[in-house]
Design a protein that fits this description.
Elements: H1 2-8, H2 10-39, E1 42-45, E2 48-51, E3 71-73, E4 77-80, E5 89-98, H3 105-123, H4 127-130, H5 133-150, E6 156-166
Antiparallel strand pairs: 1-2, 3-5, 4-5, 5-6
Length: 167
Amino acid sequence: MAEEKQEKEPKPKNSKKILLIIAGAALLCGGGGGWLALFSPWQVVDGRALLGMKKAPEIEKKPEKELHKFIYKMDPFIVNLSDSEKMRYLKLKVEVESAESSSNEEYEKRLPQLRDTVLAVLTSKTSKEIMDSEGKTKLRNEIAARLNQLLTTFQIKTVYFAEFVIQ
C-alpha cells in the first residue's frame, strides 16, 4: 500500500510540470508573435513592405482641391420614350453639380425652364439610345449642354442620375 501512494504522488507533480511547461511555451509563442507584429522588418505600410526600414517613407501630400461643389436636386421625371414599336417609360432622377460652392438664385428662378428642357431631351430619346452606359453618358452631356444654354450666372459642371429605370 505504501508503494501505491508513492506512485500516485509523482503523477500530480508531473502533470503540474507539464501544465507549467505548456503555459510557458504559450507565453513565449504569444510574446514572440507580438514582437514580430510590432517590430517585424517585414511590415507592410501603404501597400509596400518595409524591409529593415525604421520609418515609413514620406508620401508627398498634394493640396486637396475642393471635391464637393454645390449639387442641385430635381424632382424625379417620369416620361414616355419615343419608341415606336412599344410604349416605354423612363423614370429618372437628375442631380446637377455646379462649379460653385453654394446655391445660386438663378437655379431656383429658372427651375421650370430647366425641367422643361430636361423633359424635352428625355422624350426625344428611344430606350435603345439610352440603355447602355455610352448612351447614358451622351444623355448626361446633352442635358448639361442644354441646361448651360439657359443659365447665365453659373454653369452646370456634371449631371448625375440618382435613379434610372426604363420599363
